[in-house]
Write a structure and sequence with these properties.
about 300 residues, alpha/beta, Rossmann fold, 2 domains, two-stranded antiparallel sheet, about 45% helix, about 25% strand
Length: about 300
């Protein structure tokens, strides 16, 4: 596992250009769409005293400071500001299955764009942001910090980092996060959640932190295309399997298996009260993210 980011001098110029382009595009999205949504959904941990000032029309009577009011012989109120100091951690799956895509881009590219939006939203609200990359092991950790330069480091690492492992140990990554984070954090787990036995570590993590599952899918994973004889290669193990995709019974069995896995995952997340943001390689990330923010805001308003 590494905790130091690749040095800028070693990053190819085309990657640096890509970082700047993603930053510009992401900054526009954040400023136009996500800044207010993010702040309204992820509120601070409480209220901090700021100052005492003279009462103004519309101030809450319950905020009157009676001691100062008696001394000054006119009403004064206490003013509070929201304590933010939030920590956002992006736990990103770097296993072999993430380097797959049959439409516009790889799943890893979707994960990078979504992580960039979340990182820029956090930094814009003066929150700390960190990252953990995992495969069949914890590969790389970026400790949470504030500032644009730090957000750019996270984004650069997302684009340039290459893992040592190809398998997936999501449960191990969740356990690591539980030990690593001493205080409550907002954790976005970005993964395809394929074949993961994660209920116990996910439950423990969600008891201490605000966990959001970001599921990344490609259309070819949800419906087996009819392309005749095909050789399928597992990107994590390298195992190959020859199949006749024109066989209707095979495609039906595949659809049933995928549906069962998706339903089991969603049932687990609902049972643990964990929100899911479902994104795909053939569609923009804007709508799923906005839907997540607005659903959360509506739910908080109804309470």
């Amino acid at each position: 596992m590494t905790t130091a980011s690749p040095r800028t001098a070693l990053v190819p110029p085309d990657v640096l250009r890509q970082v700047r382009l993603i930053e510009l595009r992401t900054r526009g999205l954040v400023n136009a769409l996500f800044a207010g949504e993010y702040r309204s959904v992820f509120k601070g941990q409480g209220m901090e005293f700021s100052e005492v000032r003279e009462y103004q029309a519309g101030d809450e009577v319950r905020n009157i400071d009676w001691n100062v009011t008696a001394r000054m012989r006119r009403p004064y109120v206490k003013r509070y500001i929201e304590e933010r100091e939030l920590t956002v951690v992006l736990a990103v799956d770097f296993s072999g299955s993430e380097w797959f895509g049959t439409r516009r881009r790889f799943k890893s590219e979707v994960a990078a764009e979504l992580a960039a939006v979340l990182a820029m939203s956090a930094i814009r609200n003066n929150d700390r942001v960190g990252a953990l990359f995992f495969s069949d092991r914890v590969e790389h950790v970026v400790p949470p910090r504030k500032g644009r330069r730090h957000a750019m480091r996270v984004l650069r690492d997302l684009l340039v980092f290459r893992p040592a492992g190809r398998g997936t140990d999501l449960a191990g990554a969740l356990e690591y996060l539980n030990k690593m984070l001493a205080h409550r954090a907002i954790i976005f787990v970005v993964s395809d959640f394929i074949g993961a036995e994660i209920e116990r570590p996910l439950k423990r993590l969600a008891q201490r932190h605000d966990v959001i599952a970001v599921t990344v899918e490609d259309p070819a994973e949800t419906a087996l295309p009819d392309v005749g004889l095909a050789r399928l290669i597992d990107p994590e193990t390298g195992a190959a399997l020859d199949v006749d995709t024109s066989n209707p019974a095979l495609r039906d069995a595949y659809d049933e298996r995928v549906t069962a896995e998706r339903d089991a995952r969603r049932h687990l997340l609902r049972r643990l009260a964990i929100d899911e943001v479902a994104v795909r390689t053939d569609a923009p990330i804007i709508e799923p993210l906005l839907r997540f923010f607005r659903t959360r805001e509506t739910r908080a308003w109804r309470r």
